[in-house]
Design a protein that fits this description.
single chain, about 190 residues, Alpha-Beta Plaits, Nucleotidyltransferase, domain 5, six-stranded mixed sheet, two-stranded antiparallel ribbon, binds iron/sulfur cluster
Protein backbone atom coordinates (compact mmCIF):
# COMPACT_ATOMS: atom_id res chain seq x y z
CA UNK A 1 0.00 0.00 0.00
CA UNK A 2 1.34 3.46 -0.94
CA UNK A 3 0.81 6.68 0.99
CA UNK A 4 1.64 10.33 0.44
CA UNK A 5 3.00 12.09 3.53
CA UNK A 6 1.08 15.35 3.47
CA UNK A 7 3.49 16.85 6.02
CA UNK A 8 6.25 16.51 3.44
CA UNK A 9 4.48 16.93 0.11
CA UNK A 10 4.90 20.49 -1.15
CA UNK A 11 2.60 20.02 -4.13
CA UNK A 12 5.39 20.53 -6.66
CA UNK A 13 3.70 18.18 -9.14
CA UNK A 14 6.87 16.36 -10.21
CA UNK A 15 5.31 12.98 -9.41
CA UNK A 16 2.05 13.75 -11.20
CA UNK A 17 3.96 14.87 -14.28
CA UNK A 18 6.02 11.68 -14.31
CA UNK A 19 3.13 9.41 -13.47
CA UNK A 20 -0.28 10.93 -14.25
CA UNK A 21 -1.71 7.40 -14.41
CA UNK A 22 -0.84 6.87 -10.76
CA UNK A 23 -1.00 10.26 -9.06
CA UNK A 24 -2.89 13.52 -9.20
CA UNK A 25 -2.84 16.75 -7.22
CA UNK A 26 -5.82 17.23 -4.93
CA UNK A 27 -7.81 20.28 -5.95
CA UNK A 28 -8.66 21.26 -2.39
CA UNK A 29 -5.25 21.23 -0.69
CA UNK A 30 -2.73 20.75 -3.49
CA UNK A 31 -1.13 17.57 -2.14
CA UNK A 32 -0.42 14.59 -4.36
CA UNK A 33 -2.77 11.68 -3.95
CA UNK A 34 -2.51 8.11 -5.17
CA UNK A 35 -5.11 7.16 -7.78
CA UNK A 36 -3.54 3.92 -9.01
CA UNK A 37 -0.65 2.52 -7.01
CA UNK A 38 0.01 -0.27 -9.52
CA UNK A 39 0.74 2.15 -12.39
CA UNK A 40 3.99 1.22 -14.17
CA UNK A 41 5.40 4.73 -13.72
CA UNK A 42 4.81 4.83 -9.96
CA UNK A 43 8.26 3.61 -9.00
CA UNK A 44 9.90 6.33 -11.09
CA UNK A 45 7.63 8.97 -9.54
CA UNK A 46 8.49 7.79 -6.02
CA UNK A 47 12.20 8.02 -6.71
CA UNK A 48 11.83 11.48 -8.26
CA UNK A 49 9.96 13.03 -5.33
CA UNK A 50 12.35 15.65 -3.84
CA UNK A 51 10.60 15.40 -0.48
CA UNK A 52 10.64 11.60 -0.15
CA UNK A 53 6.93 12.01 0.47
CA UNK A 54 5.65 8.83 -1.17
CA UNK A 55 6.11 5.77 1.01
CA UNK A 56 5.13 2.14 0.83
CA UNK A 57 3.65 0.32 3.79
CA UNK A 58 4.40 -3.40 3.75
CA UNK A 59 2.63 -5.69 6.17
CA UNK A 60 1.62 -3.98 9.36
CA UNK A 61 2.79 -1.21 11.66
CA UNK A 62 2.59 -1.84 15.40
CA UNK A 63 1.89 1.03 17.79
CA UNK A 64 2.13 1.30 21.57
CA UNK A 65 0.21 4.03 23.43
CA UNK A 66 1.13 4.71 27.05
CA UNK A 67 -1.89 4.93 29.37
CA UNK A 68 -2.84 4.60 33.04
CA UNK A 69 -6.60 4.32 32.69
CA UNK A 70 -7.29 2.75 29.25
CA UNK A 71 -9.13 5.87 28.10
CA UNK A 72 -6.58 8.66 28.05
CA UNK A 73 -2.94 8.93 27.03
CA UNK A 74 -0.41 9.23 29.87
CA UNK A 75 -0.25 12.97 30.51
CA UNK A 76 1.09 13.73 33.98
CA UNK A 77 4.52 12.20 33.33
CA UNK A 78 6.47 10.84 30.39
CA UNK A 79 5.30 7.81 28.45
CA UNK A 80 7.88 5.48 30.01
CA UNK A 81 6.07 5.95 33.33
CA UNK A 82 2.71 4.71 32.00
CA UNK A 83 1.15 1.76 33.86
CA UNK A 84 0.24 0.05 30.59
CA UNK A 85 0.69 0.14 26.87
CA UNK A 86 -2.15 -0.37 24.44
CA UNK A 87 -0.77 -2.28 21.46
CA UNK A 88 -2.47 -1.50 18.15
CA UNK A 89 -1.86 -2.74 14.62
CA UNK A 90 -2.26 -0.71 11.44
CA UNK A 91 -2.79 -2.43 8.11
CA UNK A 92 -4.88 -1.76 5.02
CA UNK A 93 -6.06 1.57 6.39
CA UNK A 94 -7.36 0.12 9.66
CA UNK A 95 -5.96 0.68 13.16
CA UNK A 96 -7.04 -2.09 15.52
CA UNK A 97 -6.49 -2.66 19.25
CA UNK A 98 -4.64 -5.96 19.79
CA UNK A 99 -3.64 -6.20 23.44
CA UNK A 100 -2.77 -4.43 26.67
CA UNK A 101 0.70 -4.90 28.17
CA UNK A 102 1.82 -3.97 31.67
CA UNK A 103 4.89 -1.76 31.93
CA UNK A 104 7.37 -3.69 34.12
CA UNK A 105 9.21 -0.48 34.84
CA UNK A 106 6.21 0.71 36.81
CA UNK A 107 7.01 -1.69 39.65
CA UNK A 108 10.67 -0.85 39.69
CA UNK A 109 12.65 1.47 41.88
CA UNK A 110 11.01 4.84 41.34
CA UNK A 111 13.88 6.61 43.06
CA UNK A 112 15.89 6.22 39.87
CA UNK A 113 16.22 9.44 37.97
CA UNK A 114 14.52 10.17 34.69
CA UNK A 115 16.86 9.29 31.85
CA UNK A 116 18.27 6.28 33.70
CA UNK A 117 19.36 3.77 30.98
CA UNK A 118 17.84 0.93 33.05
CA UNK A 119 14.43 2.57 32.74
CA UNK A 120 14.71 2.80 28.98
CA UNK A 121 15.67 -0.87 28.87
CA UNK A 122 12.74 -1.87 31.08
CA UNK A 123 10.30 0.13 28.94
CA UNK A 124 11.71 -1.39 25.75
CA UNK A 125 11.24 -4.91 27.15
CA UNK A 126 7.46 -4.34 27.24
CA UNK A 127 7.49 -3.12 23.67
CA UNK A 128 8.77 -6.09 21.70
CA UNK A 129 7.57 -5.98 18.10
CA UNK A 130 6.49 -2.34 18.39
CA UNK A 131 7.40 0.09 15.59
CA UNK A 132 5.97 3.32 16.99
CA UNK A 133 5.82 4.47 20.62
CA UNK A 134 3.11 7.10 21.17
CA UNK A 135 3.11 9.47 24.14
CA UNK A 136 2.09 12.95 25.14
CA UNK A 137 5.42 13.50 26.87
CA UNK A 138 8.82 11.85 26.48
CA UNK A 139 11.59 12.07 29.06
CA UNK A 140 15.35 12.28 28.47
CA UNK A 141 15.33 8.60 27.51
CA UNK A 142 13.87 9.57 24.14
CA UNK A 143 17.54 9.70 23.06
CA UNK A 144 17.74 5.93 23.61
CA UNK A 145 14.19 4.98 22.64
CA UNK A 146 14.21 6.79 19.28
CA UNK A 147 16.83 4.37 17.98
CA UNK A 148 14.44 1.51 18.59
CA UNK A 149 11.07 3.06 17.81
CA UNK A 150 9.58 5.99 16.02
CA UNK A 151 8.69 8.23 18.98
CA UNK A 152 5.42 10.00 18.15
CA UNK A 153 4.32 12.91 20.35
CA UNK A 154 0.56 13.53 20.31
CA UNK A 155 -1.07 16.20 22.52
CA UNK A 156 -4.63 14.83 22.20
CA UNK A 157 -6.00 13.48 25.49
CA UNK A 158 -8.48 10.72 24.60
CA UNK A 159 -7.07 7.51 23.10
CA UNK A 160 -9.88 7.48 20.51
CA UNK A 161 -8.67 10.91 19.32
CA UNK A 162 -5.06 9.72 19.38
CA UNK A 163 -6.03 6.86 17.07
CA UNK A 164 -7.62 9.31 14.61
CA UNK A 165 -4.43 11.39 14.57
CA UNK A 166 -2.31 8.29 13.97
CA UNK A 167 -4.46 7.30 10.98
CA UNK A 168 -4.29 10.82 9.57
CA UNK A 169 -0.50 10.90 9.85
CA UNK A 170 0.35 7.36 8.83
CA UNK A 171 2.37 8.62 5.86
CA UNK A 172 4.60 10.78 8.09
CA UNK A 173 5.07 7.91 10.52
CA UNK A 174 6.04 5.57 7.74
CA UNK A 175 8.55 8.00 6.26
CA UNK A 176 10.09 8.45 9.71
CA UNK A 177 10.25 4.69 10.22
CA UNK A 178 11.88 4.07 6.84
CA UNK A 179 14.15 7.08 7.41
CA UNK A 180 15.31 7.19 3.82
CA UNK A 181 17.10 10.48 4.43
CA UNK A 182 19.70 8.68 6.52
CA UNK A 183 19.45 11.39 9.20
CA UNK A 184 19.32 10.58 12.86
CA UNK A 185 15.78 9.96 14.06
CA UNK A 186 14.09 12.44 16.31
CA UNK A 187 10.64 12.41 17.85
CA UNK A 188 7.83 13.55 15.55
CA UNK A 189 4.94 15.72 16.70
CA UNK A 190 1.63 14.69 15.16
CA UNK A 191 -1.54 16.83 14.98
FE1 LIG B 1 6.06 16.86 -5.26
FE2 LIG B 1 6.64 14.62 -3.90
FE3 LIG B 1 4.39 15.95 -3.37
FE4 LIG B 1 4.65 14.62 -5.64
S1 LIG B 1 4.61 13.76 -3.58
S2 LIG B 1 3.80 16.69 -5.41
S3 LIG B 1 6.84 14.94 -6.10
S4 LIG B 1 6.48 16.68 -3.05
Amino acid sequence: MLLVDTNRCCGCGICTTICPQGLELEVENGYAQIINETADCMDKAMRACPQNAIAEIKGKLVFAIGTDDDKTIKANDHVGMANFFHILEYSDGELIFKEKRANPKYNEDETRTHGDPGKAKATASALRGVDVLVGKRFGPNIIRLKNQFVCAIIREKEIAGVMDIIKKNIGSILVEKNNKDGRERSGIVLK
